[in-house]
Design goal:
Elements (H helix, E strand, L loop, with lengths): L13 H5 L2 H8 L3 H28 L4 H18 L7 E2 L5 H32 L3 H4 L4 H18 L1 H5 L10 H10 L6 H20 L5 H15 L7 H5 L16 H33 L5 H17 L6 E2 L1 H9 L6 H17 L8 H15 L2 H10 L1 H16 L2 H21 L28 H4 L3 E7 L4 H11 L8 E8 L5 H17 L2 E5 L3 H9 L8 E3 L2 H15 L4
Parallel strand pairs: 3-4, 4-5, 5-6
Antiparallel strand pairs: 1-2
Helix pairs in contact: 3-4, 3-11, 3-15, 3-16, 3-17, 4-14, 4-16, 5-13, 5-14, 7-17, 7-19, 7-20, 10-11, 10-17, 13-14, 13-15, 18-19, 19-20, 22-23
Membrane topology: Multi-pass membrane protein
Main location: membrane
Protein name: SulP family inorganic anion transporter
Length: 573
């Protein structure tokens, strides 16, 4: 079947599209064993989120308490109202540069107002069903700006990592590095040592005890060393005066027309990045679990969460990929795990907040150094650099603009370059069908030789076949992927026919690679038939190789080889 064919069922209504996954899970039946699974997953995520929330807040120019409030209130609303079953919301490393720039230019009141406005815009985007358009952003753009953000995050932590004394730290990367180099003589060996201990503990535990909360253990270890040895390092207590053991009362931000106009560019940037980051995180969760999120419902929840967080003094909330993946790996059953993660963080604030005063800033800087390293998708960078000059240029320009200019500008320019590259490539293929009429004329059955019709290809319930017609590029990958994402456990094999695909870019290949991963998780054989040499090269670069993905010249050849394999293994029915 063509990937453009709509589903046979009628289009879902408003209530179906915007019903939170929490309601869906409760309708399925929620039992005590499910609550136990969600409680354990929520506690695990809270242990990961505790140091991260404070570290991201400090790096953003906010207080550690604001980071916790963001995870508590924003995270709860994301899980309770979201369209993703496993999404964990909170402050994200991707926002550090935008938040820090907003605080520097407009102060804390400006940041909270920008978060409030961003929440309203995110909710409107979701209600207007514009979330699908976020998926049109090419894969090289997302990889490029994420890597650029990671570099900036690491640079922002150099002062605390090295224990440098610097009265004013510039925001621009080049000026920042120059200023830090000028005060290199103020390096504090104790701070550098604690940062190294933190990084080493995280890496060792990740290698030998991957299920342990490495970041929390590393921060606690560094804190105990600093306290026991009376090391001369800056801590949360010395810089921020600790964390209050109570919650703030909700209040609206300072709203005036002049203030709104001043922070509107920041609010738009928060909205754009928040939508991209949250939907990417939801896609990651879908790939790990085989479930599907509702993007517009998720954006409405993200909007409400940002408004809610701003009322309690928090800042930007978005879906967080690392914490969401931790939630899935910890055995979460549904959104209750994310809600409980916020409850556990709330209990920490109410009971154990004074202990946070002893945490060295160098330890939190070490945590963010690991976060920055993990944000760079090194395998994806390598794949894109091997994919051709177009992907390499888009990746490099997006990366460099993120570092030296502005994140929003990087995304816009990267998207425009991706479109130009696509148009240039498609222009080479227009000669193939330039003489084809708009509406094909009828022809006789004997005009062209046809193979005999094999009815088994349409009736075999064990082999599902999909045919894609047309260019499979970043603008079409999302909609085609949504149709193809239907691999069921009852199928032994999934055949994806690309014989009518004249062009395949890295975003389309990345989508197909996700389908292959899902098939592998379900034990379904994944076949690609009829791929042209250029498309096949792109697929191979993206890791679609045997035995996880097998190739055939046609659908018939794929089905025949699959049946032979089934007979040989004794699984044929």
């Amino acid at each position: 079947m063509n990937a453009s064919i709509a589903h046979g069922s009628p289009a879902p209504g408003f209530l179906e599209l915007y019903t939170p996954k929490l309601i869906t899970v409760l309708r399925e039946g929620y039992h005590l064993r499910n609550l136990r699974a969600d409680a354990l997953a929520g506690l695990t995520v809270a242990i990961v989120a505790l140091p991260l929330s404070m570290a991201i807040a400090i790096a953003s120019g906010a207080t550690p308490a604001q980071g916790l409030y963001t995870s508590i209130f924003g995270g709860f609303l994301v899980s309770a109202l979201g369209g993703s079953r496993f999404q964990i919301g909170g402050p994200a490393g991707a926002f550090i540069i935008l938040v820090a720039a907003t605080v520097a230019e407009h102060g804390m009141s400006g940041l909270i107002l920008a978060t409030f406005l961003s929440g309203i815009m995110l909710a409107l985007i979701g209600l207007l069903r514009l979330g699908t358009f976020i998926k049109f952003i090419p894969f090289p753009v997302t990889v490029g700006f994420t890597a650029g953000i990671a570099v900036i995050i690491f640079a922002s932590q150099l002062r605390d990592l090295l224990g440098l004394s610097l009265a004013h730290e510039p925001g621009a990367l080049a000026a920042k590095l120059q200023a830090l180099w000028s005060v290199r003589g103020t390096l504090t060996p104790a701070a550098l040592g604690l940062a190294c201990v933190t990084i080493a503990v995280i890496l060792v535990l990740k290698r030998y005890r991957p299920h342990w909360p490495g970041m929390l253990i590393a921060v606690v270890t560094a804190s105990l060393i600093a306290y026991a040895a009376h090391l001369p390092v800056e801590t949360i207590g010395t810089k921020f005066g600790g964390i209050p053991s109570s919650l703030p009362l909700p209040h609206l931000p300072d709203i005036s027309m002049s203030k709104v106009m001043a922070v509107m560019p920041a609010a738009i940037a928060f909205t754009l990045l928040g939508a991209i980051e949250s939907l990417l995180s939801a896609v990651v969760a879908d790939g790990m679990t085989g479930r599907r999120h509702r993007s517009n419902c998720e954006l409405v929840a993200q909007g409400v969460a940002n408004v809610g967080a701003s009322l309690f003094g928090g800042f930007c909330v978005t879906g967080t990929i690392a914490r969401t993946a931790t939630n899935v790996r910890s055995g979460a059953h549904g959104p209750v795990a994310g809600m409980l993660h916020s409850v556990f963080l709330l209990l920490f604030v109410l009971i154990a907040a004074p202990l946070a005063s002893f945490i060295p800033l160098a330890a939190l800087a070490g945590v963010l150094a690991i976060v920055a390293w993990n944000m760079i998708d090194r395998s994806a960078v390598g794949v894109l650099l091997r994919s051709g000059w177009g992907e390499s240029v888009v990746l490099a320009v997006t990366f460099l603009l993120t570092i030296f200019r502005d994140l929003t500008e990087a995304i816009v320019v990267g998207f425009a370059l991706g479109a130009v590259v696509f148009i240039q490539r498609m222009s080479r293929m227009t000669t193939v069908e330039t003489q084809a009429p708009l509406v094909a004329s009828d022809i006789g059955d004997d005009t062209y030789p046809n193979r005999p019709y094999d009815e088994s290809r349409a009736t075999d319930p064990e082999i599902v076949v999909y045919r894609v017609s047309g260019a499979l590029f970043f603008g079409a990958a999302a909609s085609i992927g949504a149709i193809l994402d239907r691999i069921q456990d009852r199928h032994r094999a999934f055949v994806l026919d690309l014989s009518a695909v004249p062009f395949l870019d890295s975003t389309g290949a990345n989508m197909i690679e996700g389908l292959a991963q899902k098939a592998r998780q379900k034990g379904v054989a994944f076949w690609i038939s009829g791929a042209r040499p250029a498309a096949r090269r792109t697929l191979l670069i993206h890791g679609l190789r045997p035995p996880h993905c097998r190739y055939a010249t046609s659908i018939a050849a794929a089905c025949q080889r699959q049946r032979r394999s089934d007979w040989a293994s004794g699984t044929a029915t």
